[in-house]
Design a protein that fits this description.
By secondary structure, this protein is an all-alpha fold. The protein is about 80% helix and about 0% strand. The longest helix has about 60 residues.
Length: about 170
Amino acid sequence: MEWIGVVQQASSSPWLSAVLGGAGAAFGASLTSVASLRVLSDTKQARVRAEEREATGLITAAMTGVRNYAMDEGEPGRNWRVDVSGLLMGTEAAALVFRDARLRDRLTGSIGLIINAEDLRTPLAYTPEKLVAMTYIEMLKSLGTNLRGEQLQNPSKNWSDAIDCLLAQRHRFE
């Protein structure tokens, strides 16, 4: 009950009233600032997650198109690199949206594997269709892990071997 006495004394002293009023205003402003920063942070996180979900949809749709293209052995004289590059248009930019650097590397590496699948046929002893199927599964697992907010797991050994082969091949041409 002592605080009531302090308040009563403050109302009789203009100087003390001003100090207590200023302290209350500063405290209120601080709380408002903290709350505003929290709202801004939550809004930014929600925007980033929405961008990642949109990028996931774009990449998944493109990969499904590539998988279907790889399974269709029809058209004679088709140009794998040109056709697949067209199907994957925009996926590399979409992969850059993700905050997780390991996921970005996994996605861009997978895109590179698919575009270069014909060139990797001999060194890997994989058909382009098998390479696309393996990469498709790896990308879906990685994107799903990200959507669930889980930690990205290490890639499969086959995927890692394929990436090593692609990097070695690129290094030879540099």
